[in-house]
Amino acid sequence: MIVRVETLGSSEVKGIFESNTVFNEKGISLLKQSYAVASSGREFKVPEGTSTVEQATAHILRQIEKARASLKQGKTDECARLLLEAALMIATPMGAGG
User: Fold this and answer.
1) Mind spelling out the 3-state secondary structure of 27-56?
2) Structure pTM?
3) Does residue 16 fall inside a structural domain?
């Protein structure tokens, strides 16, 4: 199931990330909105036990591996949710909690 969170043209989305980076407020907001849609309305929260860079990196790598497995099984919705979580973990400053 693909749901558009906000209608933006590809050039608009590309412009958000080229002019500011994924760490800008608008980019993070779009990622959070997308995650909520992919997660049945749940907001993104940094998982428990990821308080250090090493722990967060290990979690992100696990999410990417799970996403690959989901994609191979044809579970594209699950794959998208896992990749959105990984992206949000990268974009969320340590200690911010999501």
Assistant:
1) HHHHHHHHHHHHCCCCCCCCCCCCCCHHHH
2) 0.74
3) yes
Residue 82 lies in a domain: yes
Q: Print the domain residue range for 19.
A: 10-91
DSSP secondary structure string for all residues of 54-90: HHHHHHHHHHHHHHHHHHHTT-HHHHHHHHHHHHHHH
Q: Which two tokens stand for residue 77?
A: 């919705």
Contact status, residue 43 vs residue 32, Cβ threshold 8 Å: yes
Spatial separation of the C-alpha atoms in residues 55 and 29, rounded to whole Å: 24
* Per-residue pLDDT tens over the stretch 4-62: 445 555 666 566 556 656 567 777 888 898 899 999 999 999 888 888 889 999 999 99
